Amino acid sequence: xxxxxxxxxxxxxxxxxxxxxxxxxxxxxxxxxxxxxxxxxxxxxxxxxxxxxxxxxxxxxxxxxxxxxxxxxxxxxxxxxxxxxxxxxxxxxxxxxxxxxxxxxxxxxxxxxxxxxxxxxxxxxxxxxxxxxxxxxxxxxxxxxxxxxxxxxxxxxxxxxxxxxxxxxxxxxxxxxxxxxxxxxxxxxxxxxxxxxxxxxxxxxxxxxxxxxxxxxxxxxxxxxxxxxxxxxxxxxxxxxxxxxxxxxxxxxxxxxxxxxxxxxxxxxxxxxxxxxxxxxxxxxxxxxxxxxxxxxxxxxxxxxxxxxxxxxxxxxxxxxxxxxxxxxxxxxxxxxxxxxxxxxxxxxxxxxxxxxxxxxxxxxxxxxxxxxxxxxxxxxxxxxxxxxxxxxxxxxxxxxxxxxxxxxxxxxxxxxxxxxxxxxxxxxxxxxxxxxxxxxxxxxxxxxxxxxxxxxxxxxxxxxxxxxxxxxxxxxxxxxxxxxxxxxxxxxxxxxxxxxxxxxxxxxxxxxxxxxxxxxxxxxxxxxxxxxxxxxxxxxxxxxxxxxxxxxxxxxxxxxxxxxxxxxxxxxxxxxxxxxxxxxxxxxxxxxxxxxxx
Length: 599
Hints:
Structural class: alpha+beta
Low-confidence stretches: none
Number of strands: 18
Number of helices: 16
C-alpha cells in the first residue's frame, strides 16, 4: 500500500464522507502488424532473429535460455514495428521462442506469425480494474482524506502486472493534494491470458478513476466540479502520497488557458440552451486535467554513430521505431549537434550486435533518452575532430574536416550511453501535463455519440519536433476514446466455455474509426515552458494525452445527467463504469417509452 498522513484523523476532520466504486474494462492492442519473428540458424550454431519486438535485449536473453545457447550466439534485430503500445514487450517472446526452437530443430529459417484473431485470443491485454473508495472533504470543499482499494485483473500469471499496479499507485492522485491518503492494491488471478502493459499502463485508468471520484464528490457536496477540482490542485513544493515533490506545476496556468482558448464559459451557456430546447438529444461538456509522471530510472540506452569518408552519417540507436517518431527525433538531434543537414543522417534498425544490453522501448522515455545518448556520441566525435579542425582554415566544411580526419586515420565512430540515476524529487523524473475540453452530442434514444469538438493543451516542454508531438497527442487521444467509449472486451462467462474471448475480431471489438474522432479537433502545445531536466528542454508525448480523453467520457455522463433531469429523475449522482458504449449510455439515460408522444 501507499500511505500518507493519517486517514482516520482526516475523516474525523471531514464534514462530508463519500463512498463509491467505479470500474473500467480492458483494451486490446490493435496492431497494424501482428506478432512475427524470423529465426535463422547461423553457421556457428547460433540464431539470427528478426522480430517485431519492443525489447530486443530481453528477447535475446529469453531465447538464449529457451534454446540453451550463450548470449553471443543469439542476435536480435528490429527495423521497425507496425504498432507496439506495450503489446510487443513480453508478448513478443512467445513467437520468438517458438520460431527459435523450430529453426534449430529443423536447421532452416522459420517464420512464426500470428493472425489478428490469434493475437486477440492468445495474448494478454490492458488490465481491467475496479476501485472502491472513501473520500472526506471539509465544509470549504478541501480534500481531507481518501482511501482507495484497487482490484486488478492479472489474468493467469504475474507477468508485467506488478509494474502496472505500481504505476497506478504512483499516479492515482492525479493533480490533487491529499493531506491524508491510503491506497491498497489487490491482484486478482483469473482464467484469462496474463494481462500486460498497454499504452500508459496503470497511469490511464488511475486518472480516469480519480476524475470519477472528483465528479462524484463535487456533486455530493453541491459544488461546481470545475471549482472543486481547481480548489484542490497541487501547489509547488507540496508532496504527493508517494513522496514526490511537486515542481513546475503548470496545471493552473493550463487550466485557465484552455478555458479561454476554447471559449468554455460561452459554450457552457450555449449547451445549457440546447439542452433546454431538446429532449432526446443532449450535449455535454467536460474539462479534465492530467498529471502524468515520467520516470527515467531503470532505463538504459545507447547509440552508435559511424561517419563515412564523404561526411554522411549512419546511426544505430537502441530504441525501436513503433510509430512514435524516434528515428526522426534522433536523426534531428544528430544533425543539430554536428551542424550537418538532416539528409546526411541515416538511421539503421536496432540490433543487439551493434547496441547491446539496452532497455525496452516504452514509458514515453525512449525518444528522449536515445536523443541524450546521441548528444553524448556527437560530443565525443566532436572532441576527436577538434585537433583536425585546428589544422584547417575557418572556411573548412564538415566534409573537409571528415576527409582530413579519414586520411589521418582517426576513428570516425563514437558511442553514447545513458543510464539515468534516481530522481531526487521522487519516483518520477518529471511530470507532463494536459488539459482537455470535450464537447459531445448524445442521442438519448440510441446511445450514439458524436464528439463535436475537442480542445487539448499539452505541456511538451520545448518540442524537438512539433509535428510528431502533435501527431502523438492526436493519436493517443483517439486511442483513449476507444478505451473509454467503444472498445468493450467481451468474455464468455457461461459454464460451458468460461474465459473464451468473444470480441476476437472487428465484428465484436470496435476501435475508433473515422466517424469516432472529434469533428473539430484542436491541439496546442504549451509555449515557453522548457523542461529543466528534459533533453533539449523537451518532454515525452506518447502516453499522457491518452489519459486526457476521459474528458469525453465525463462529457457524455454530463449529457446523460441532463437527460435524466429532463425525465424528472433529478440531478443526483449515478454510477457509470467505462467503457461508455452505446448500450451503456442508453441504459443510463433511463428513457421511458411510455412517455413518448407519437404525432
